[in-house]
Specification:
It contains ten helices and twelve strands. It is of the alpha/beta class. It has an eight-stranded mixed sheet with strand order 1-4-6-5-9-10-11-12. It has a two-stranded antiparallel sheet with strand order 2-3. A two-stranded antiparallel ribbon has the order 7-8. Strand 11, helix 9 and strand 12 form a beta-alpha-beta unit. It is globular. The chain starts with a helix and ends with a helix. 33% of the residues are buried.
Length: 409
Amino acid sequence: MRKTKQFAVLLSALMLASAVTACNERTSAENTQETAEAVTEEITETEAPAQTETQSVDALCIVQQGMFSSGGIVTSAVGGDYDPQQSWKDKTRAGNTAHVDHANVFYQIPAEDNGNPIVYLHGYRQSRMCWMTTPDGREGFSELFLKKGYSAFLVDQPRRGEAGATTEISEDTDLDMWYGDLRKYDDESEEYYYEDDLEYPETATKYQPGDQAWYTYYRIGETDGKTNPKSQFPDDNDSLNQFLRQATPNTGNYDKVVISKALGEVMSDVQNMTGNKAIFMAHGEGCSVAWDLSVENLSAVVAIEPISVPNTSSVQYQKLIEANIPIVIYFGDYIEDGDSELASTEYWQEVHEKVTAFAEQYREDGGDCTVVDLPEEGIMGNSHFLFQEKNNQEIADLIQKWLGEHGLN
């Protein structure tokens, strides 16, 4: 472990040195290669893991980066007058307000900006981290696309991650990592009870363990640590540990209206900053926000395994059609040929069927919507987290090809 860390430090230093040199001195690629070869020779004895053989030292020049919040509300002041002498010691919080329910954005703009910013939104139980890296420490989608000229605007949605400030504590009882009390209160007996016959652990009112459940739901494998055949998921123990620790619970209840409103502000802020409409790239549940965005700030939608699409008779649908917003949707493997005994297989088959029907209707109504099933493209072994897996560069190239066909490169 110590040798691995030493290698990581040296490699990070090399990558940083390469980037700084490229931005400030524009040193030739030959010099960078000579430096890489020298460092590689020096650290041969550190017994680097096999994955590092594919890590890139290509320079990436970032000319601007920062962080900002978009949207949200300011609560009304608590009744009474604020007492500056007592300050935080005043438990009544008289006169205090709170800034809550906003989105938080980390952005990077590359030197070779192509004028097509990408706004990234995570899915359920995730944060912007999922776009920035992979479980085995390789380049994430945001960096891959930065190198292709797409500026990155990485969002933590309201009540998640860096945007956790909210007025209410989560009581979601279905999918979140923690939730409120599942028991019901009986006024007559003055006792709490569960509505079903399941036996809940005492900790059920505090948190909801789910490593194995999510592992199967994501179609990585049937049993934690045992991936599906031909899987692209990095299945070593360290990578699995890193992946499971990406999970980020809601601080408040999931509210699509609150999230969509804040993301609408993000898209407006991005256009004001860059002068360009943005590509909206989202994953899983995050894709549901795409359909509510103002088309004035939207150039295209890249949806990675969306769990919902708009009803074809809805206002959202008509708005997208009238604005001629192009949409591309990607699905991984183990759906049509998944294990029929797994509840997750049936679930994803139903999702895929609904999305495919949506795309067909969108095209019939004159819109541009493509569903890409990776196995049909000869790309096998991808789970729900296809953008984090070992072939994420190949998938990024596929997405860029579609973007280029639509003039977004």
